[in-house]
Amino acid sequence: MLRSFVSQVLYTGILHMIWSGILFIGILPAFASPSPVHSLPAADDDTLFQVGEELTYNVSYIGFDIGRIKVKLLSREADSTSSTISAIAYMDSYKGVPLVDLHSVFESKFNEAVFSQFFQARDKDDDHWKLFKYRFDYVKRVVIVEEGIWQSNSIDRRDTIGLDTLYQDGLSLFYFARKHVRNNEQLRVPVFVSEKKGMAEIHFTGQRKKENIDAVDYPVDVVYFSGRAGFIGVFGLTGGFEGWFSNDEARVPILAKMKVIIGNIRIELMEWKRSGWSPPRYSQVKQ
Asked: Reduced to 3 states, what is the DSSP secondary structure of residue 123?
């Protein structure tokens, strides 16, 4: 039971930090989209989507470190009309956490406007990895869901689910949030998570704040937002979440918190590999 609970905690860690990006702005005219309250210019794609970027986060629950999340931006391939961006996230429990040996991997492909085109997740289960794939076909307005065993040629289950708009997966949201986090918007966004369609609300306040993290010895200049899931998340997510992203063009997630039935989970940046970047120092006057 403990293994199952902590596994859910870590899974939800990446998923809802990623809810830092639970938002949606209409991209294709064939789909209806909400109207934002107000928008500032989006981040420059060349600055934001830096190939080779690697961000590592510590996940803690009631003060105890339980695992780590590492997110990498793998590639950005352009054609005559758009770019396809590939990213991957690794989630691992720390050695020594009682009764827990969790290893999960998320992979996502999305375009520079950031809506999901492809997503797959694999979770280690004893001596094999369970695999889940989502293939989004917006022309046909469906998502094809496949379940099987990783590195096998068999598919144990396949479903086709209808879509009525553009959706975000558990990793594309991470980058969508960064692209728009300094906007002042209140939005409702469709999400496709755990093989189900859902809806969430996100309030990007545009509020500049300062936060302290263990990785640096100065207060970090951040932008704050909050939100609420309009559905029940894994292991009893009660709906509330908060995020603090760096107040610069990189818009790196610095800290996230979310509420669950029995308390709060904290996800904090602890290492990074990004050319020319470090967490911006907070000062009374923004440089």
From this structure: strand
